[in-house]
Amino acid sequence: MKLTTSPFQLIAVDLDGTLLRSDHTIGTEDLQALTACGEQGIVRVAATGRSYYSAQRVLDETTPIDYLVFSCGAGVLRWSDRELLHAQMFPPHEAQVIGDCLSALGHTFMVHTSIPDNHIFWHTPLGENPDLEARVAHYAQWTRGELSDEAYSMPVTQFLVSLLCSEAEFEALQERFMPLAETIRSTSPFLREYKWLELFPRGVNKGTGLEWLCRELGIAAEKCRVVGNDYNDLAMLERFPQSYVVANAPAPLRERFRVVRDHDACGVAEAVLR
After folding, report:
1. Looking at the domain 92-200, which fold is it?
2. In terms of Cα–Cα distance, which of 169, 79, 164, 84 is closest to 118?
3. pLDDT at 127
4. 10-87+204-273 adopts what CATH topology?
5. pTM beyond 0.90
6. Which of 84, 94, 171, 227 is buried deepest, with most CB atoms within 10 A?
7. Is the dihedral of CA 191, 89, 209, 62 positive or negative?
8. Distance between CA atoms of 137 and 134, rounded to whole angstroms?
9. Residue 4 — very low, low, confident or very high, per pLDDT cuts 50/70/90?
10. Which strands make up the sheet holding 67-70, listed edge to edge?
11. pLDDT above 70 coverage of the chain, percent
12. Does the pLDDT of residue 3 top 80, yes or no?
């Protein structure tokens, strides 16, 4: 694949539902597009809600990317040598306040440990939330068990709250935590009727994580192209003017941003070539 003169110097793509197809592989056309970007000196970034460990389950040393923005912008890593360049976490005392508040409200949630090992987590008691149960079962080897004070003895990367609720109820909870944390919405990949409210340190999201990397590389926002598919991409899509969503994105995102083919039809390649 040969690119014409490119109007961008960096391309950032979400993983699940964007670069990754339904079978969690990357399509040939998308691989060719990212390889062609590299040959032209365009910086390639995977920007994901996954932890570093989880990203390694779908990416390897042959994947044509240069940087990984992971955990919704809480960490930034250079892919070639896996050097951690940037990380932001809750101090223990702030994490304790948030955890106590969530517990008092009766929510079911996970608490993720410090970067880069934030695939390890504690969780509230199981039994009443099948979505949380599915996530705990999927990552069973990494659980520290039911939530205890030990969870707040070290910096915390994020909280993940699993919710089966109306839009109004979700927005009310999101607003309640805004003074304490960055609130990021995503859709559960286990039970899609469940919404996830992810809480990160204030100012942490994919947009600010990518913005930090752009400053380090000396690349202006106007020279960045981004592609996403879900609400946790929203901060990135809003922050960079060359923004695209794949056709499998929720309708509210498709209405706001330019649309390319869906993730199973190599929409990233289409975004590269536009």
Report:
1. 3.30.1240
2. 84
3. 85
4. Rossmann fold (3.40.50)
5. yes
6. 227
7. negative
8. 5
9. low
10. 83-87, 75-78, 67-70, 43-47, 10-13, 224-228, 242-246, 258-260
11. 98
12. no
